[in-house]
């Protein structure tokens, strides 16, 4: 039995969601680095949301790639975490890095919400 016979190909919707998760993960990592360089109490409060989002999006992408039976539930959780992180980033509207991160989080949340409702 070949690999393709054991696992169906990823749908375009799944591929888009995986890409959004990985993009969001990278953006959260970059934003954490930016926060650490700037310091300050507000950045430190946002760090928790960034860390949660970074880890959740990476795990969500991994679970979809391996066709975990828990993918839909993970996508639903990931959407919530991404929404939370986007809100945290929006607390600093003058920071371009935070605004780019909020956008990546929103895009990921949207694709994850769609996948959570999809039949995987």
TrEMBL record:
- Gene3D superfamilies in the record: 1.20.1270.360
- State the source organism's domain of life: Bacteria
Q: Return the protein name.
A: Ferredoxin
Q: Which organism is it from?
A: Streptomyces echinatus
């Amino acid at each position: 039995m070949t690999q393709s016979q054991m696992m169906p190909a990823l749908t375009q919707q799944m591929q888009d969601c995986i890409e959004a998760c990985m993009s969001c993960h990278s953006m959260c990592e970059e934003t954490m680095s930016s926060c650490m360089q700037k310091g300050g109490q507000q950045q430190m409060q946002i760090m928790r949301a960034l860390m949660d989002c970074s880890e959740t999006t990476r795990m969500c992408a991994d679970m979809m790639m391996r066709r975990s039976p828990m993918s839909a539930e993970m996508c639903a959780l990931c959407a919530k975490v991404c929404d939370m992180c986007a809100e945290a980033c929006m607390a600093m509207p003058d920071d371009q890095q935070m605004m780019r991160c909020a956008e990546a989080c929103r895009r990921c949340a949207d694709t994850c919400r769609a996948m959570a409702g999809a039949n995987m």
